[in-house]
Specification:
Largest sheet: 8 strands, mixed
Radius of gyration: 24 Å
Order of helices and strands: HHEEEHEHHEEEEEHHEEEHEEHEHEH
Number of helices: 11
């Protein structure tokens, strides 16, 4: 089944929804306008049930097929939230909200799933139940976990779940996927070194936190280079270094460093946390200072299940003619929480020659809409085919 003609007909309408969402970005759980738009559209389409308020501002629509002899229930998930980035695209429909931007394409994901919901509610050419899931707070807020904690899977009887993300540099409308571990676990750390501040001309009278923290920035890299097996995937990045004094002639009393750790296994995750504490505590003691460490585990490793991955790839090949093997991605993705509760798969769809996600000049490519909508719809129709 190639791209469905219905989505070619609907492309301009779906693109208009997308551009409206793009113009009015909302961060984390503050997706009030977007959630209300999704709710309005799902009711307009004739969904059998529309539920709001899961995961605070999440929206769920239930679409029953022409029959339900199979007893199958398939979930389809899109994320709705934007990023705290100042947009620099110059688009006619650029963000109207200072410091907020759809720089990851969640506007496109939401619009494509709305398009699929419209088609599925019109045709109902399947035997079972489709559950469309619109999630807030993917960008660091763990909205997927909150929706699951609110009983998403149990309440709607979801048996398996599918997600999609656009991918810049990949040809528009083509797909990539991989079985097993796919996106990394994403943790973060906040380390505060305390010493004894003083005059920069008399360092002997101080406990220099700048030197202490600088050693830590370099020493933390030995977790990757000297503690982890070279064949394992791990990233340790210090992304912030802030001293308590900004004067040129003052050795600061304290220095705070922050950063992230990305891993693809529980073993590497445990190793990184253990060694970070050991290294920073050891440095503080050696230099005569103290340290306070906050290590927060974020999104877990996202892993596709094998059966659902092969099915998702087969559907993608029907839609676009190809679905290649995706690389491991060291970014985090909170669809991982849904895949911890139910079998399923997460697929990438090409966004063409655009800036990479999280860039102030990124924009979702509306030419990907027909392929994305077709994939969603075909997942439902192929997984729950009508028998007569």
């Amino acid at each position: 089944m190639p791209i469905k003609n219905r989505f070619s007909d609907l492309q301009n309408e779906i693109a208009a929804w997308r551009q409206d969402i793009h113009e009015n970005p909302e961060i984390l759980y503050e997706t009030y306008r977007t959630s209300a738009l999704v709710e309005e559209k799902l009711k307009e389409f004739g969904c059998d049930t529309v539920v709001t308020g899961l995961g605070r501002t999440g929206v769920v629509g239930v679409i029953k097929g022409r029959s339900s002899h199979s007893g199958k229930v398939v979930g389809l998930r899109a994320d709705m939230d934007a990023l705290p980035i100042q947009e620099m695209t110059g688009l006619d429909y650029a963000s109207k909200i200072p410091g907020a931007m759809h720089a990851c394409g969640h506007d496109g994901h939401t619009a494509m799933l709305l398009g699929a919901a419209k088609y599925l509610a019109e045709t109902r050419h399947f035997d079972g139940t489709a559950v469309v899931i619109f999630q807030p707070a993917e960008e660091g807020g763990a909205g997927g976990k909150e929706m699951c904690d609110d009983g998403l899977m149990e309440r709607f009887g979801i048996q398996e779940v599918y997600g999609m993300h656009n991918w810049p540099t990949k040809p528009v409308g083509t797909f990539s996927i991989r079985s097993g571990t796919f996106f990394a676990a994403a943790d973060q750390f906040d380390i505060l070194f305390e010493g004894k501040g003083g005059h920069a001309a008399k360092p002997q009278n101080t406990v220099d936190t700048t030197v202490m923290a600088s050693h830590a920035v370099l020493a933390l890299q030995t977790i990757v280079s000297r503690n982890a097996d070279p064949v394992d995937q791990i990233v340790v990045s210090v992304t912030s270094f802030e001293t308590s004094s900004k004067a040129f002639n003052v050795i600061p009393q304290s220095v705070q460093i922050k950063g992230t750790v990305r891993t693809m296994s529980v073993e590497m995750r445990d190793l990184a946390e253990k060694r970070l504490h050991e290294i920073c505590n050891g440095l503080a003691e050696t230099c005569g200072g103290t340290v306070k460490i906050s290590y927060q585990r974020g999104y877990p490793v996202m892993a596709n299940t094998s059966e659902q991955t092969e099915f998702a790839a087969e559907v993608a090949r029907k839609v676009s003619g190809q679905c290649d093997d995706a690389p491991l991605v060291m970014g985090g993705e909170d669809f991982a929480y849904m895949l911890e509760e139910r079998p399923g798969a997460y697929i990438l769809i090409g966004n063409g020659s655009t800036e990479m996600v999280h860039h102030p000049e990124y924009n979702f490519n509306d030419e990907a809409i027909p392929a994305g909508c077709s994939w969603w719809a075909e997942v439902v129709e192929s997984r729950m085919p009508l028998t007569n």
